[in-house]
Amino acid sequence: MKKQIKNRKLKGMTLTELLVVMAILGILILIAYPVLTPIFQKARSTEAKNNLVHLANLQKVYFLEHTRYSDDPGKVGFQQEALETEGGKAFYQIEITEASSSNFRASATSIADFDGDGIFNIWEIDKSGIPIEVVQD
After folding, report:
1. What pTM did the predictor assign?
2. Which of 110, 49, 99 is CA-nearest to residue 74?
3. Contact 68, 100 (CB under 8 A)
4. What is the separation of C-alpha 73 from the centre of its chain, rounded to a whole number of angstroms?
5. Which terminus of the chain has fewer CB atoms gathered within 10 Å of its CB, N or C?
């Protein structure tokens, strides 16, 4: 019985084959990374724009009820998603920078430098409801 177990070999990959596969995967990642980076940046910018448009809509509802805009996101019903640095998924800090009886201004500031150039992306919105990229990353 022991001889039968000894003679049976398990099929698997050799160390050389494993290293070749890892090298090929590394090359594919190096090729794909520069192509995918702008797509990730665009998706993150979409997060900022969507949050600002949502905040602008909430401000309009608040204005109809109180005849002024609020400087507190909580009063209008906006809740900031947890930032990526705090274990959440959001890459932009949303804040209302100005609010009066006639206008408001809110901004979305990125918490990460997406392309590593030292510039952080900033979007702004006012009562017009159109997000504008103020600082491009």
Report:
1. 0.73
2. 99
3. yes
4. 20
5. N
Task: Please name the residue ranges forming H helices in the chain.
Answer: 2-7, 15-66, 73-76
Q: Side chain identity at 61, as an amino acid letter?
A: V
Cα(92)–Cα(81) distance, integer angstroms? 9
Contact (Cβ atoms closer than 8 angstroms) between residue 125 and residue 56 = yes
Give the Cα separation of 52 and 30 in Å (integer): 34
Nearest to 111 by CA among 44, 42, 37, 40: 44
Predicted confidence band of residue 1 (pLDDT cuts 50, 70, 90): low
d(CA 131, CA 52) in angstroms, rounded, equals: 7
109, 120 Cβ separation under 8 angstroms: yes
Amino acid at 87: G
Give the three-state DSSP class for 67: coil
Give 57-102 pLDDT, tens digit per residue. Answer: 999 999 999 999 999 999 999 999 999 899 999 999 999 999 999 9
Cα angle: 54, vertex 37, 44; to 5 degrees: 10
